[in-house]
Amino acid sequence: MQAKKRVYAFFDGQNLFHSAKECFGYTKPNYDPIKLAIALTELEKDRMLIGLNFYTGVHSSKVRLDLNQFWHKRLEALKHRGKKFGIQLKIISRPLKYTMIDDIKNPGQKYPLPREKGIDVRMALDLVRLARYRQFDVAIIFSQDTDLIEAVHEVFALGRELGVKFFIECAFPGNPDSEKQPIGIRDTRWRIIDKALYDSCLDPDTDLYFPKPPMFKNP
């Protein structure tokens, strides 16, 4: 019997949230990474999810206490669910950096715009490292960050060097009825997550991660 292909998922938490917000209108990061990873893995037979790396920036408690608490609670819950599903799960978080920009709605005022720093680099390094040690047959990248293209090419080069075949997929939200279709990472196989699939992988505890009363505006 042929062994199942080992699948490893790589999530850029903020990138996926903003894509889902643009496509489906959700204002909270309400997806369950483990459910999504399993659903994408099972799109083909003879595949098994063995690991998941989740990367995200975390808000400063001095700037957005509500979102800081949200992400800490959510990441802790994700860690427990990883044990429940019996997969190797690693969480990589970084403090978000802030740039003060002009507030268009309130002339003369500024507000802090959060941005991630180092997430794409860390994801790229992990992707290549795990390929070098043959930890997966298939990598599913839940991000549309084009900065990852060089890491994708490096994995393919490693495959040729090691004499193994690596498959890399790029999964992201998309609306088949929209004229403007999203674009994935070049040279990967694109897996478009429609709203039905996304909604089947929601985290029912999303609202519980917020402090009471919730003050959620924009991750």
Overall description:
The protein has a single domain (5-209), classed as Rossmann fold (3-Layer(aba) Sandwich), CATH 3.40.50.1010. It is built from six helices and eight strands, in the order βααβαβββαβαββα. Helix 4 runs parallel beside helix 5 (149-162). It has a six-stranded parallel β-sheet, sandwiched between helices. Strands 4-5 form a two-stranded antiparallel sheet. It has helices spanning 13-24, 33-41, 65-85, 119-132, 149-162, 195-199; strands at residues 5-12, 47-58, 88-95, 97-102, 110-115, 138-142, 167-173, 189-193. The protein is globular and about 65 Å long. By secondary structure, the protein is of the alpha/beta class. The longest helix is centred in the middle third of the chain and has 21 residues, at 65-85.
Quick summary:
This protein has six helices and eight strands. The protein has helices spanning 13-24, 33-41, 65-85, 119-132, 149-162, 195-199, and strands at 5-12, 47-58, 88-95, 97-102, 110-115, 138-142, 167-173, 189-193. It starts with a strand and ends in a 20-residue tail after the last helix.
Helix-strand blueprint:
Layout: E1 5-12, H1 13-24, H2 33-41, E2 47-58, H3 65-85, E3 88-95, E4 97-102, E5 110-115, H4 119-132, E6 138-142, H5 149-162, E7 167-173, E8 189-193, H6 195-199
Parallel strand pairs: 1-2, 1-6, 2-3, 6-7, 7-8
Antiparallel strand pairs: 4-5
Helix pairs in contact: 4-5
